[in-house]
Each structure stands twice: as C-alpha cells, then as structure tokens.
Amino acid sequence: MERQRNLRLQRLLTQHGFGRLQEALSGCTYGERVEGALRSAVSGLYATAGWAAHDSGDLPRSAQVHAASLQSALLARDGAATARAWSNLALQARAEGRHREAVQTTQAALGTRRARQDPRISALLHARLAIGQARIADPAGAARSLLAAETVHDRAGDEPGPAWLGFLSPAELSGLASLAHQAMGRDDRAAAATAQALSLLPAPMRRRRAL
User: Fold this and answer.
1) H helices within the chain, ranges in order?
2) pLDDT band with cut points at 50, 70 and 90 for residue 124
3) Distance, CA of 123 to CA of 71 (rounded, Å)
4) Which of the listed residues 40, 118, 141, 202 has the most CB atoms within 10 Å of its CB?
5) What's the CA gap between 154 and 157, in Å, rounded?
6) CB 133 within 8 A of CB 145
7) Confidence of residue 6 (pLDDT cuts 50, 70, 90)
8) Which of 111, 90, 85 has the alpha carbon at shortest distance from 102?
9) C-beta neighbour count of 151 within 10 angstroms
10) Which residues touch 69 (CB under 8 Å, ≥6 apart)?
C-alpha cells in the first residue's frame, strides 16, 4: 500500500508539478527574486519526488531526481534547499552501499553556510554522518558526530526550522544513533537508543515507529 501510494505521488509530481513549474521558468517574465523562489519550489518538489521514488524502490529514478533537486537549489542560491539536496544525495549513496561517498557528501552538506547557521540541519547531518562513519569503520569519527548532533540540537531552542525538517526530534536522533551503534557492533547501545526512540515518538508517527 505504501509503495503504491509513493508511486502514484511520483507520477503526479512528474506529470503535473514539474511541468507547470518548468513552463513558468521557461515562458514567463519575472525578476531575480521571483526566479529564485520558483527554483526553490522546483528543488523542493524534486526532493519530495526523490523520496517517493526511494520509498517505492526505484533507486535510479531517486538518484536522478535528487541530483535535479540540488541543481535547482544551487541555481536558486537557496542555502536550506542546497543542504537538503546534499543530505538526500548522501542518503541515496548510503542506500546503494556507497558508504564512503555518503560520508563525503554529508560532509559537503555540513560545509554549506546554512548548515553551519541552522542547528537543526546541522544536527540531522551530524547524526547521518555518524552512520556513514560507522559503516566505513571510523568509530572515533562516529562518536564525535553523535556528540555533535546532540550538542547542536540542544542549541536549537523553540524557534521553528525549515518545514522539511518537521520530523526531526530527540526521538529521530535516538533512532539515528541506534543505527550508528548497530553498524559499529555495539548492540547494547543500539538497543538502548532504539528503546529511547520508541519511548519518545508521538503516537501518530506510526511509520517512524514501524521503522
């Protein structure tokens, strides 16, 4: 059911969303500010389609769309969209078993100005970096990244972050930490982090709980 829904979403975005925005970009007259907003919208739409393709098992399509998301974000000079696109490409590399590339891509995302300025983006990227470092046998690096994720997330405060980061919470960070510990063979720590994640997850987040 979930895979079928994601396939429908991917087709809908491909057939309607991308086409309309690309037509506006190509056929309308506008200023630099409006062009940036349109390209940011295209980047966000590609990011959503990339996740839909990923969840439906179409990794080649997912890679293609995430790359397009990054291109649009760079053209828009949108720091948050650029960090998001780099992060998604890193996850793509991890899903395909290219763990060293995933680490390098996540580090590129952390190097963006927006990631340095936004503690929520930084926390997510550090947590994902820890998983990659664990999978390339860099336990010291993974430990530093997990600590950095926790530290910067504590600095985030109550101000809202980007809408696409709505899923990020202490429960999410605990879940990512559990993956890093599991990759390092630390099953006791992985079990503890998983239990903590489950205890912190709100009841409506059934998909996260299942994962």
Assistant:
1) 2-12, 18-27, 32-55, 59-76, 79-95, 99-110, 113-117, 119-135, 139-154, 170-183, 187-200, 206-210
2) very high
3) 24
4) 118
5) 7
6) yes
7) very low
8) 90
9) 13
10) 43, 44, 46, 47, 50, 81, 84, 85, 88
DSSP state of 156: -
The average pLDDT across 47-73 equals 86
Tokens at 182, concatenated = 């599991």
Residue 171 φ/ψ region, left for φ over 0, alpha for ψ in the -120 to 50 degree band, beta for the rest: alpha
Amino acid at 61: R
Phi/psi of residue 51, nearest 5 degrees: -65, -40
User: Backbone phi, then psi, for 136, in 5-degree steps?
Assistant: -110, 20
Burial class (CB in 10 A: 0-12, 13-18, 19+), 167: exposed
Is pLDDT of 2 > 70? no
**CA distance linking residue 103 with residue 100, whole number of Å:** 5
